[in-house]
Amino acid sequence: MLKRVFYSLLVLVGLLLLTVLGLDRWMSWKTAPYIYDELQDLPYRQVGVVLGTAKYYRKGVINQYYRYRIQGALNAYNSGKVNYLLLSGDNALQSYNEPMTMRKDLIAAGVDPADIVLDYAGFRTLDSIVRTRKVFDTNDFIIITQRFHCERALFIALHMGIQAQCYAVPSPKNMLTVRLREFGARFSALADLYIFKREPRISSRAPGYRRTAFFRPAGTYSHAASGAK
């Protein structure tokens, strides 16, 4: 009896693992055509959405995921692939502000403050992607993050009918723990989309948001290669 229960549990665990792996691969396959690893191949869009993460680990060491995303945003902006950067991240605590931290570093690197818009309610990837359309009035944009994150963000975008592309910036070499967590994040995203049908936690605009920020007439951009297509 105990042996039968053990084998039944083993089969169930095996089926669950196969399901999770299958869904993971399906998400990667479905979004592959919309991901660009090389900047030169990236299509032009007015808006680049930078998905936030912590700048530092707990020990005060800089987070390489953060560093690569900031560099990717700079590369896309300076090459004229995007004209504006929407920085979307968590601002749940007064001492923790992902969008403002990104803004400071990008301005220090030469980005015009007028070309930066902050989304303080990007608590989850779903919030960041859906709010870009519902709150910031753009349905066709470039997501900037690591490839594994691109896949989940794009899957959400495709499901919502959002015409996004993704610029996949480099990932740190030692990312096993992050990749394992990603299995759970993808399973959760699928549940949010197909079962719970979740919406962003906050659907209102940030104070001071200018509706025309992303629609400045062509030819008026200040940074190099602004006319790139």
TrEMBL record:
<keyword id="KW-0472">Membrane</keyword>
<dbReference type="InterPro" id="IPR023604">
    <property type="entry name" value="Uncharacterised_SanA"/>
</dbReference>
<protein>
    <submittedName>
        <fullName>SanA protein</fullName>
    </submittedName>
</protein>
<dbReference type="Pfam" id="PF02698">
    <property type="entry name" value="DUF218"/>
</dbReference>
<comment type="function">
    <text>Participates in the barrier function of the cell envelope.</text>
</comment>
<dbReference type="InterPro" id="IPR003848">
    <property type="entry name" value="DUF218"/>
</dbReference>
<dbReference type="InterPro" id="IPR051599">
    <property type="entry name" value="Cell_Envelope_Assoc"/>
</dbReference>
<keyword id="KW-1133">Transmembrane helix</keyword>
<keyword id="KW-1003">Cell membrane</keyword>
<dbReference type="GO" id="GO:0005886">
    <property type="term" value="C:plasma membrane"/>
</dbReference>
<feature type="domain" description="DUF218">
    <location>
        <begin position="47"/>
        <end position="174"/>
    </location>
</feature>
<keyword id="KW-0812">Transmembrane</keyword>
<keyword id="KW-0997">Cell inner membrane</keyword>
